[in-house]
Known about the structure:
360 residues; two-stranded parallel ribbon; disordered N terminus
Amino acid sequence: MVKLKVYIGIFRIMQKIMVTGAAGFIGFHLSKRLLDEGKTVIGIDNLNAYYDVTLKDNRLKQLISHPHFTFVKMDLEDKDRMNQLFSDVAPDAVVNLAAQAGVRYSIENPHAYISSNINGFMNILESCRHHRVKHLVYASSSSVYGSNEKLPFSVSDNVDHPISLYAATKKSNELMAHTYAHLYGLPVTGLRFFTVYGPWGRPDMAMFKFTKAIYEGKPIDVYNNGDMKRDFTYVDDIIESVTRLIEKPATPDPAWQPQSPDPATSNAPYRLYNIGNHSPVMLMDMIRILEKEVGLTATLNFLPMQAGDVYATYADVAALENAVGFKPSTPLDKGISAFVRWYRDYHGLGNGPARVSAGG
C-alpha cells in the first residue's frame, strides 16, 4: 500500500511536462498524447530546415490551439534563454527529443551534431539540475549498438563501438546523463528508439521516402542490395512506452554491482530502455508490404552498404516490459497501412494508386 501511494503521488506531480522537439515526429505525437491526458505541455522547437518546415508547421498547428500547450521557438544551444525558460516554467519533467538526427547526414555535416546533440543536451542537463526537475527522459538511439552483432540488442550490452558520429553523440548523451545522475541525483532515463515510423513521420526516413518515391514514379535507393533487417516500431507504441516511463522516475538500483557493472542501471538514479518492436523485418519484405498498400510497384535502385549503416537491428525489450508492463507489438502491415492512409490524406491523393508529379 505504501508503494502504491508513492507511485500515485509521483503520477500526480508530473503534470507540467517540457517537450523539446515538439514539432518533430515523436515530439508532436507525445505532446498530443500528454495534452489528451490533461497535462500541461511546454513545447520547444527551433523549426530548422533539416527537412520540410511545412510539415513541422502543420504538426504544430494541431497543438497550439490547445489551451494547455505553450510553444517556444528556440535553440537548445541558447544557454541563457534555456535557463530563463526553466526558471519561468518550472517543469515537473522534461522529455528531450530535440536533436540533429540522421546517420548519413552526420557524415556530411558533423558540426551540427556536436552543436545540437552535445552542447544542447548539456544545457538541458544543467537547467534540469538547477531547477530541480523531477525526471529527465531523453531520446537515445538504436544506433549506439554500432558494431555489435549479438542479437537481440540488450541494454545490458557494451556499446563502446559506434560507427557514426550520430551514434557517438547519442552514446555521449547517455554518459553525460549518468554523470548528472551520479553527481546531483537527477533522475534520468534514456530511450533507445528503433526505426520509428507512422503518420506524420520524418521525410528523411525510409518509410516516408519510399512511399513518396513510389507515388512519384521515382526509383528508391535500396542499400546493401536489400539485404538488411530493421526492427520497425510504430509510433503509437513509442508514445505508449514514453508516457508510462515519464511517470516512473529512475531510482538507484540496489542490485547494481561495481565489480560487474550493468550499463543499463546504476547506483545513481539512471536507467536505459530499448523501445523497439522486437521483431526485425527484411527491408525487401517491408518494401513488398508498402507496394501492396500503395497499389504500385516500386522501381528499385540497388546500392552497396553505406558508411555508418548496420546490417540488422533487433530490440530486446525485457527491461521495458518489466518496468512498465508494456512492449511494442504493432504488426508491420497494420502500421504501414495506417501510414499510407495518412500520407494519402495529407497529400490529397484520395484512395487510389494514381501517380503524382514530383511536386505533388
